[in-house]
Amino acid sequence: MLRTGFHSVLTVEGLGGLGIEFASKSLFSSLLDNWQSVEETKRRSLFLACCKTWKVPILAILVPRVCVTGLKFAQPFLMQAIIDSIGNFDGIASSFPAFIEMPFTVLDCGVGMFFLSRFTGLSCLAIFVPLIASTVLGLLFGRPSTSALKLWNENIQARVAKTSRMLSQLPAIKALGLGPKTAEFIQSLRVTEIASSKKYRVIQAISTALAVVVDLVTPVVVVAVALFTSALGHRISAQVLYPTLGIVSLVQGPLAELLKGYPTSMAMMGCFERIEAFLCLEDHKDPRVVVCSDPPQASGEGQILEKLPATAFQIPQQASTHIIRFDKATIAPRGSDTPVLNYIDLEIISGSINGVYGHTSSGKSTFLESILGEAEILDGTLYVDNITITVCAQRIWLPNTSFRECIIGDCEYDRVWFNIVVTRCGLQQDLAALPNGEDYVIGSDGVALSGGQCQRIGIARAVYPRPRAIILDDVFSSIDRRTALDILTGLCGENGLLRNSGCTVIMATYLPESLDFVQNLILLDDDGAVTCEPRWKPNGKPSETAVFLQRCMLPQQDVAARQELPHERPRATAMSSRASAPPRDSTQGDVGKGRGKGDFTLYLLWFNAIGSLISTFWALLVLLMGTTEVFTSIYVRIWIAVAPSDRLFIIGYAMVALSSGLLCGLCIFLNHVHLSPRASLALHDTLTTTVAQSTLGFLSTTDSGSILNRYSQDMDLLAKHIPQAIYATLYCGATSTVQIGVILSSATYMTAVLPFIFISVFFIQRYYLRSSRQLRLLEIEAQAPLVTELRETATGLIYIRAFRCQEHSFNRGLRLLDLSQKPFYFLLCSQAFLALTLDLLASAVALILAIVTLFARNPSQNATGLAFLLLINIGTSFNRFVTYWAMSETSVGSLSRLRDFFDHTPKEPSNRATVDLPPDWPSNGVIQINNVTARYRVKKEELDDSVLHDLSLAIEPGKKIGIMGRTGSGKSSLLSTLLGFLEYEGSIYIDGVDIKKADPDQLRSRIITISQDIVELEGTIRDNLLPFDKLWSAPSGTIDEKAKEKAERRDAVVRETLVRLRIWDRLVKHGGLDANLDAVGYSRGEKQLMCIARAVVRRRLTGSRLLLVDEATANVDPWRDQIVREMMKEYFRGCTIIVVAHRTETIADSNRTVHMAGGYIEKVENHW
Questions:
Q1: Quick check: is 31 in a domain?
Q2: How many Å apart are CA 536 and CA 550, to the nearest integer?
Q3: Residue 1073 maps to which CATH number?
Q4: Are 522 and 367 in contact (CB under 8 A)?
Q5: CB count, 10 Å around CB of 4?
Q6: Is residue 299 part of a domain?
Q7: Residues with Cβ < 8 Å from 1055, sequence gap 6 or more?
Q8: What is the chain's mean pLDDT, rounded?
Q9: Element (H or E) spanning 762, and its range?
Q10: Does position 568 have pLDDT exceeding 50, yes or no?
């Protein structure tokens, strides 16, 4: 592997297999069995289970590790033999492993004390002073370190989760002009996280500094006690002092590890406890009673059926033909104990087609989720046959895979059936237009598709497994009525796929045409009552059911005259017709063959983030620290040469050691508490700014997992690993350099060995680093698919459980886990190779120097003793220097990824803002579009094909313009161009301002935008409705009365708007405007109303006269849709309104309708 990495670029696939003993599936089974054999509620049961699972490799370490201890402490006897040969000489080279396990430190200390007693007698007990101090301090800092690290990790988890949520909505957030505010929010999360880590950093800094102080003070304590107890005699000599210091140096390593090891072990236990707490969370329990009336139906070959709960039972075949039965059931949403639907008592017959109707927030989604086992049944019983029930919910879950794989899932691919399903779901034209056809990668959450395409793929996925029952939850909201009618006919019509197969259909929709297909009506009123009755048929006199349905349905229109108007999201959906590559990490592969070579400028990136002045000062301190540490050995030589009988020299010896320790503590404290947080915050801010300023094309073609990975793993490396690696490299390098100088001045004959050391170390690190750098980069990159998989699994659990794909999803996760562990494993192997090679090198040097010393003529005892004493330290220093250098080189792979991301991410032009928008802009809403040809820019080096062609349009102030057209016609691209997302030739003036010269974020913040994508910001309802206003968040007493009155007036505007939209009452129960959005439990339709409320509030507070709308009421029932229309007429009177329409009733009152096709204006209809 190292040979391959030296000569070529490593890939994850080319690393080879890990071996069956490392397979995640077998390890998971063993760990699960051992964990279940341990009491799961027992404290640290997960840690005990891990020890039990890997007991064989743990015990295999024991014998060789004990041998290492014995051989290491046999060195004093070898030293004594050499000293006797040359006349009282001390020294033999030795090196220590990079990491000494905690259980062996006690053994090392005990053996070392035994050998030390051979030189100092009972004075060896003095070594207990630092040992006891280290133990007490370890206990003192152990528990606080655990809680501090746990707090830090919890804040990291919260930051990454909230950042992920913001990144998934970033295109829509930028369209609202909230890009800078979102960047500030994400950066504030990092500031909060770093602040929460301060306690842990301080504890680690103190612990590490104390370990160094103990390391420096230990020889002083031993020599002082031995000197004043006459164990060394009345006159110190090189024959005794150097061997004593040599054996003490062998004990210093275990002492330092003992001091650092306990807090580290306790911190590890904290990580185990957090994982264990998550694993001990209550499992998902199906509240339904699964009735085994028929054999379980698989959704396709390889489909895995979940285990039946204990409540499953058999019933006679003749008992009933129903497959779902509610028996006086009271239902609440998942995780809530507040009932939404009460006392449901109805049956759903096998093979029937059922329509679920009700107003917004009446509980339709909760009703459908209860059938899937995803809601709480507070009372009564819900019986469901043991069948596969597929689902297509309001929020379409689309994993980052190909068009075909997204539809077939883990079912067997049947080309004939696949083509039938695609055709019946209205996707045949879309499939023909996609590059790579069925293999086209749709991206995370279908980012490379339009909203209508996403919904139709979701329907096709639910139909393909040939289910016994299917649930459709408002799946036509982004599809025009003609296409929706075609899909309904193809699935539920007379010769429909679902009707002919006997599939039970349960669908919630606002389409009135659905009444022509359903056989039973399931009606949900606003009080939580649910009734079921046969389909209503008009008989000349409207019944109560007819009136109810009219209020729940969209207005009946002549659907035959409709053209297809699928929803296009305000993002680069038009790019899907041109892009041939899947969404990816934009910087992956840009490094190329250079990824195996070092780059010193990466370190400059870290130091520049800190600041040149303070980083230079810190680097000088590290160099000075290395000098003062070696000076303790120099002082011993001076002592022996000048006044060997003067015991007061011990005071100077102690002062030199303490000064070196204090200087070291200062360097460590600065690194942990000041430099590391400063670099982390600065680079996180640069990353967030880069993401916030990235182009729409980049966001649409880049896998969200790769961006999130930079916020998780790369930021973790920046905060925890890179600072320590850089500090240790500088420290060991400085110490080694000074030691070399002292050795050359003490024993010139050693210059013959030094070239051998330098050449060997040079080639070892060169051969090792070229592969280790690549492995570190591969380790980071291999995490991105796993992060994406975990995120997609978490968001798609309802689908995974409904389709009974748990085992398939689990196995896919294990495969990605195995793939991500391959670089990690081989990196550990390469590090073990490095440690072994350096240890062998140090042993060879020790042997050569021992031979040379034995045959040297009249060597100076003092100089030779100092040389051998330093040789022990320089062997360790070289080992640590190369090890930490390698660690820093591999860790800065994250810096390389970040720099490539900074340099290669296409950003919106920042130098074009030459015009400051007036405070009241746009005050009229006059728009003049002249010969505009627009395109998306994906990368700096290339321009995409045009999506708008020679567009010219004049819009007078106060007019409402409707934009209509098929998918890819350019409707959303026109809105994106007006918002400054697209590059274009020609000119666009809004109220006399050339928008190309305006700052894009300021431009978007002045234009009011309502998109069909629901933007949910973190925080309270007030945060969501007043995202540009921060007066309300100021602490009490920090704002004056005038500002307070202004904030109260704004709150009043918000409350009035919410009351008008009929969504205030639920807020009152949760704390009003201070209620957290997630805690309120709004339905999707209510969340869309809240987005409309945000626009209304923005209009009332700013007076902006330009509104862009992308079908704002797709998920709202007609009753509230009428309320929204009336409100918008009232509050947006006199405003220029541009509406992308998917239903003609949305633009029924427009002044003009612009029909688009292929990026051109096909025709303009005036309705004056």
A1: no
A2: 11
A3: 3.40.50.300
A4: yes
A5: 15
A6: no
A7: 1064, 1072, 1073
A8: 77
A9: helix 754-795
A10: no
Write down the residue that tokens 């057209």 correspond to: 965
| Ranges 722-731, 770-779, 885-894, 1148-1157: which has the least confidence | 885-894
Terminal CA-CA length for the chain: 75
Both tokens of 1164, joined, read: 């303009």
Peptide bond into 922 cis (omega under 30): yes
Helix boundaries (H) for 364-492: 364-372, 403-408, 415-424, 428-433, 451-463, 481-492
- Contact (CB, 8 A) for 772 and 830: yes
Between these two residues, 231 and 1058, which has the higher pLDDT value? 1058
pLDDT digits (tens, 9 = 90+) for 245-283: 777 777 766 666 665 566 666 666 767 777 777 777 778
* Closest CA relative to residue 803, chosen from 200, 373, 216, 350: 373
- Residues 352, 851: Cα–Cα separation, whole Å: 95
Report phi then psi at 357, rounded to 5: -130, 145
For the ranges 67-76, 119-128, 799-808, 811-820, the lowest mean pLDDT is seen at 67-76
Contact yes or no for 327/335 (Cβ under 8 A): no
How far, in whole angstroms, is CA 431 from its chain's centroid? 32
Least confident range of 511-520, 556-565, 1082-1091: 556-565
Domain with 833, as residue range(s), is: 54-280+600-904
Q: Which residue has the tokens 């590391």?
A: 676
Q: Which residue has the tokens 């770093």?
A: 194
Q: Which value, in Å, is the radius of gyration of the alpha carbons in the chain?
A: 36
Half-sphere exposure (Cβ direction) of 21: Cα atoms closer than 13 Å:
5
Angle at 877 between CA 871 and CA 881, to 5 degrees: 145
Residues 273 and 160 in one domain: yes
pLDDT in tens, 431-471: 887 778 888 888 777 777 777 788 899 999 999 999 999 99
Query: Could you tell me the strand order of the sheet in which 530-534 lies?
Result: 389-392, 469-473, 504-508, 353-358, 520-524, 530-534
**Same domain (yes/no): 1020, 1099:** yes
The verdict on residue 503 lying in a domain is yes
**Cα(19)–Cα(201) distance, rounded to whole angstroms?**
38
Contact 460, 427 (CB under 8 A): yes
- The pTM assigned to this predicted structure is 0.68
Stretch 199-218: mean pLDDT: 82
Which of these, 448, 503, 508, lies nearest to 475 by C-alpha position? 508
What pLDDT does 41 receive? 55
Percent with pLDDT over 90 in the chain? 15
CB distance 446 to 396 below 8 Å: yes
| One domain for residues 231 and 364 | no
The number of domains in the chain is 4
871 pLDDT band (50/70/90 cuts)? low
Buried-state track 1044-1069, b at ≥16 Cβ within 10 A, e below 16? eeebeebbebbbebbebbbbbebbee
Q: Are residues 491 and 427 in the same domain?
A: yes
Write out pLDDT tens, residues 1124-1150: 888 888 899 989 999 987 667 677 788
Stretch 677-685: mean pLDDT:
90
Q: How distant, in Å, are the alpha carbons of 550, 739, 864, 876, 933 from that of 95? A: 85, 15, 19, 5, 69
984 and 1029 both lie in a single domain: no
Residues 298-350: pLDDT tens digits?
Answer: 343 333 333 333 333 333 333 447 889 999 999 998 888 888 899 999 999 99
Same domain membership, residue 712 and residue 564: no
Residues 6+ apart with CB under 8 A from 52: 34, 37, 38
User: What pLDDT is stored for residue 277 in this prediction?
Assistant: 77
In whole angstroms, what is the distance from residue 1090 CA to residue 1063 CA?
A: 8
832/834 Cα distance (integer angstroms): 5
Asked if residue 330 belongs to a domain, the reply is no
